[in-house]
Design goal:
The chain is α+β, with helices and mostly antiparallel strands and about 575 residues long. The chain has helices spanning about 20-45, 50-60, 105-110, 115-125, 140-145, 170-175, 185-190, 190-195, 235-250, 285-290, 295, 305-315, 350-355, 355-365, 370-380, 405-410, 420-425, 455-470, 540, 545-555, and strands spanning about 60-65, 75, 80-95, 130-140, 155-165, 200-205, 210-215, 230, 255-260, 270-275, 325, 330, 335, 345, 435, 450-455, 490-500, 500-515, 520-530. The chain has two domains: about 65-100 and about 125-230, Penicillin-binding protein 2a (Domain 2) (Alpha-Beta Complex), CATH 3.90.1310; about 235-555, Beta-lactamase (3-Layer(aba) Sandwich). Helix content is about 30%, strand content about 20%. Strands 2, 3, 4, 5 and 8 form a five-stranded mixed sheet that branches. Strands 10-9-19-18-17 form a five-stranded antiparallel sheet, sandwiched between helices. Strands 1-6-7 form a three-stranded antiparallel sheet. Strand 12 and strand 13 (about 335) form a beta hairpin. The protein starts with 20 loop residues before the first helix and ends in a 24-residue tail after the last helix. It is found in: Membrane. Belongs to the transpeptidase family. FtsI subfamily. Catalyzes cross-linking of the peptidoglycan cell wall at the division septum. This is Peptidoglycan D,D-transpeptidase FtsI.
Length: about 575
């Protein structure tokens, strides 16, 4: 039986626990204001501060990675690689995303990177920096060991390092790239845009440990650089470098250069300088080693200028190859023009064979200063040869209006005008192209570039025959003769200007010639600077380099001999004619 219990009555709280209506309203208003503030703050952050916050988030977790383009290959004219890019790794860090590295791991990281722990710690301790290189261009194997340490905030990135298989043989032609992969010298600098291509881009989001979470947007792939084919022949370049080094060392010379041109196209088959350097390892390399002397150094060419200066007198009709001149010493004002070995009378062939300053200067003075200057100007003296080499020299050819007779006379035998060896080699193309001067090309051309008419064909061919005769017994080019081949050439010996005067114990020995003589395939120009081993004449010092380089190159190119193999060189005791 249920027992009825009456319902409990509501008993109001005691007065101490009662809340007044005003207090309730106050609390509700405060809570409303709080929620309104939160909503306002959210709106402010989402609208007014949106760009700032997005940028801050991107700065902490969003990264733009460079996808490096593979630099273009450089090859010789036969496709042999001369400069290639090999993949390497770069280790970098984001100090802003890193926590302190445990000492043991810091020491191991420093050991792998061949750095001191203090150096590594200093790079990682600046937490305001979001990117810092630790070590660039290391092997992939070493990069794997670094990443195996598992240090948050440290990452690797693929780059490419330039490698030059031929080492110092092509250093002055190709140049090199810096650690950032940009060309610094030679063809690497001249064709930077073509070789470099364009880098790609990948935008990613990373966590605080440096792990990629996702890509943000499409990946922009890199565009690799193009292949650059040079005109040089690796075999001839090696030959020229070897012979030049041997000549500089055996003659105890300061330096030397060799230029080899295709006699008809003007393409550069070889260019060597000594001393040189290894572009793969430039530690200890001096500016003297890096000088591309054949292109940027200028000098007075001495008697190698005589075939050029005599040609203008023949062109102007002031003389012909049969003209005979009195070559006794004579005076121009207070200056005495004379030869090292005096002769009574010489024709044009004799002037070249005896290297007569008197004969060359008399022929030059038959031509007006303006016409003489115009001829030298047409040969490109005083102007950049525009071959594509960085820093190529223009040389110096003064305005004819300021000339005195003695200056025009001395310019005929190579003093008072400055040129580079490359300019002189190019000038001799008029003798191998029937009076047309060919432009020098560092790069392989599909077909020869058009030449520039400088001399009438008959004058150029006559002077070519004179230069061939100069290689016969009694001529100054006998030291350049090649077994089995005819040659044409001219030696030169120029005293060096020190201060304001020429000194008797410092010379440049030169030889410029072509081979085979009757059907030239190449021009070889040689300069040996300050030989000090007892010989200094161009015919004794530079001519043998020509013979070895041109002879070897003709055989490399399989050029058929045009002379019997008993065209032996004259004995070494045969006096070398003066060629000042």
């Amino acid at each position: 039986m249920k027992v009825y219990q009456p319902a409990k009555r509501f008993v109001p709280p005691p007065p101490a626990l009662r809340m007044s209506t005003g207090r309730v309203r106050f609390m509700l208003a405060a809570m409303g204001l709080l929620f309104a503030g939160l909503i306002g703050r959210a709106i402010y952050l989402q609208v007014a501060q949106q760009d700032f916050l997005v940028n801050q988030g991107d700065a902490r977790f969003r990264r733009s990675l460079v996808l490096e383009a593979n630099r273009g290959l450089i090859t010789d004219r036969n496709g042999e690689p001369l400069a290639i890019s090999t993949p390497v790794q770069t280790i970098w860090a984001s100090p802003a995303d890193m926590e302190p590295v445990p000492p043991a791991k810091l020491r191991e990281l420093a050991r792998l990177l061949e750095m001191s722990p203090e150096e590594v710690d200093s790079k990682l301790s600046d937490h305001k920096r979001e990117f810092v290189y630790l070590k660039r261009q290391i092997s992939p194997e070493l990069a794997t060991q670094v990443m195996a340490l598992g240090i948050p905030g440290i990452a690797k990135q693929q780059e490419f390092r330039r490698f030059y298989p031929a080492g110092d043989i092509f250093a002055h032609i190709i140049g090199f790239t810096g650690v950032d992969g940009k060309g610094q010298e030679g063809a690497e600098l001249a064709r930077e845009k073509m070789l470099a291509g364009s880098n790609g881009r990948r935008v990613v989001v990373k966590d605080r440990r440096g792990h990629i979470i996702e890509d943000v947007g499409p990946v922009e792939p890199p565009r690799d650089g193009q292949t650059l084919m040079l005109a040089v022949d690796q075999r001839i370049q090696y030959l020229a470098s070897r012979e030049l080094k041997s000549a500089v060392e055996s003659n105890k010379a300061k330096a030397g250069s060799v230029v080899v041109l295709d006699a008809h196209s003007g393409e550069l088959l070889a260019l060597a300088n000594y001393p040189t350097y290894n572009p793969n390892n430039r530690q200890g390399v001096t500016t003297e080693m890096m000088r591309n002397r054949a292109v940027i150094d200028t000098f007075e060419p001495g008697s190698t200028m005589k075939p050029l200066s005599i040609s203008v007198a023949l062109e102007e009709g002031k003389a012909n190859v049969h003209t005979v001149l009195d070559t006794h010493p004579y005076m121009i004002g207070p200056a005495r023009i004379h030869d090292v070995t005096d002769s009574d009378r010489l024709d044009i062939e004799g002037i070249i064979k005896k290297s007569s300053n008197v004969g060359a200067s008399k022929l030059a003075l038959m031509v007006s200063p303006h016409d003489f200057w115009s001829y030298y100007d047409s040969l490109g003296f005083g102007r950049s040869p525009d071959t594509g080499f960085p820093g190529e020299a223009s040389g110096r050819l003064r305005d004819w209006k300021t000339w005195r007779p003695i200056e025009q006379a001395t310019m005929s035998f190579g003093y008072g005008v400055s040129v580079s060896l490359l300019q002189m080699a190019r000038a001799y193309t008029i003798f191998t192209n029937h009076g047309e001067m060919m432009p020098v090309s560092l790069y392989r051309t599909g077909s020869p570039l058009p030449g520039k008419r400088v001399l009438p064909a008959n004058v150029a061919d006559e002077m070519r025959d004179v230069l061939i005769a100069n290689s016969e017994p009694g001529g100054g080019a006998v030291g350049g003769r090649i077994l089995g081949y005819s040659i044409g050439g001219k030696s030169g010996t120029a005293r060096k200007l020190v201060g304001n005067s020429y000194v008797a114990d410092k010379h440049r020995a030169l030889f410029i010639g072509f081979a085979p003589g009757k059907a030239p395939k190449m021009i070889v120009a040689v300069m040996i600077d300050e030989p000090t081993a007892g010989k200094y004449y161009g015919g004794a010092v530079a001519a043998p380099v020509f013979a070895n380089v041109a002879g070897g190159a003709l055989r490399i190119l399989n050029v058929q001999p045009d002379q019997p193999y008993n065209n032996t060189l004259l004995p070494a005791t045969t006096p070398i004619p003066a060629d000042f």
